[in-house]
Amino acid sequence: MDCAKKTKLVLLSCGSFNPVTNMHLRMFELARDHLEDTGHYEVVKGIISPVGDGYKKKGLIEACHRVEMAKLAVESSSWIEVDSWEGRQADWQETNKVLRHHWEELLSREQGTDVVGTVKAGRKRKRIDAVSISNKRKHGKMEVAHKGLMHKTDGPHLMLLCGADVLESFGVPGLWKNEDIEEIVGSYGLVCITRSSFDVDAFIQGSDLLWPHRHNIHVVREWVANDVSATHVRRALRRGHSVRYLLPDPVLSYIQERRLYTAESEQTNAGVVLAPLQKHAGNHG
Questions:
Q1: Gap between the Cα atoms of 181 and 164, Å rounded
Q2: Strand pairing partners for 169?
Q3: Whole-model pTM?
Q4: Which long-range contacts (CB under 8 A, 24 or more apart) does 206-212 make?
Q5: pLDDT, average across residues 32-51
Q6: Which residues pair with 252 in a beta bridge?
């Protein structure tokens, strides 16, 4: 397939990154290889978006540190970058809202360069589109709005990149709103890096919510077993064990210099209800 006919794609990964590990970075590489091997996509950018402190997850250290570690981790990458918008928000932001933010940013950049050609006009169009999107959102038509906008632009499309644990979490009562899942999978699409112990196909087959959007879910199988998790890394750090080669060296140095992960830090938010469960209580759908 001619390169000009391929869909340009931006991959967005949201999460705690507490801390960022080599596996987080591998997810981007695996996803890019898989998508480009289909012949339909050209992955032009990857974005890491660390969650804000308002998420209230146990053991979650300050977003400023997690953002800085992520930036250190991608210094050697030519296509993955870190965005701090989500981490700077005082309140927890639903994933679909983070996707909207980045989609609107992508759209405004395209209009500011390709469509309008001037910064001033680009900003004007951005304001117009923001109002249009807001109005459609208020009338419950966000999915249609995004689909329409995506089809009208030749710029990059946006997909959420995640691990199998995120897909599994769609089935946890109270953690996600059904309409948010539909917007994520239906309007943007999902790239899921899975492990051998989790049957993604069976999970999708058993979900009336995901099944209609199954063609928007790209399953990428990691054949080289790698169970590195931030939880395991934090535990090793608390016990004074080596985590070298599990994290990028600059990230490990950053942690050691600031003594970030301790028994005390692991008790951060202990006993606090996770923000999504607080917000969606009584609205399980």
A1: 15
A2: none
A3: 0.85
A4: 207/170, 207/171, 209/170, 209/178, 209/181, 209/182, 210/170, 210/181, 210/185, 212/186
A5: 97
A6: none
> Taking Cα atoms as reference points, which of 226, 229, 222 lies closest to residue 19?
229
Rounded to whole angstroms, the Cα distance separating 146 from 78 reads: 28
How are strands ordered across the β-sheet holding 80-82?
80-82, 41-50, 7-15, 157-163, 190-194, 217-221
Band (pLDDT 50/70/90 cuts) for residue 13 is very high
User: What are residue 9's phi and psi, to 5 degrees?
Assistant: -135, 140
Give the residue among 76, 231, 249 at the shortest CA–CA distance from 163.
Answer: 231
Q: How many CB atoms lie within 10 A of CB 227?
A: 8
Across the chain, what does the average pLDDT equal?
Answer: 85
Residue 141 pLDDT > 50, yes or no? no
Q: Tens digit of pLDDT for each residue in 219-247?
A: 998 877 767 889 999 999 999 999 999 99
Q: Which two tokens stand for residue 260?
A: 């970030």
Dihedral sign for Cα 142, 186, 31, 61, please: positive
Q: Write down the pLDDT at residue 153.
A: 54
What distance in Å separates the CA atoms of residue 7 and residue 236, rounded to the nearest whole number? 42
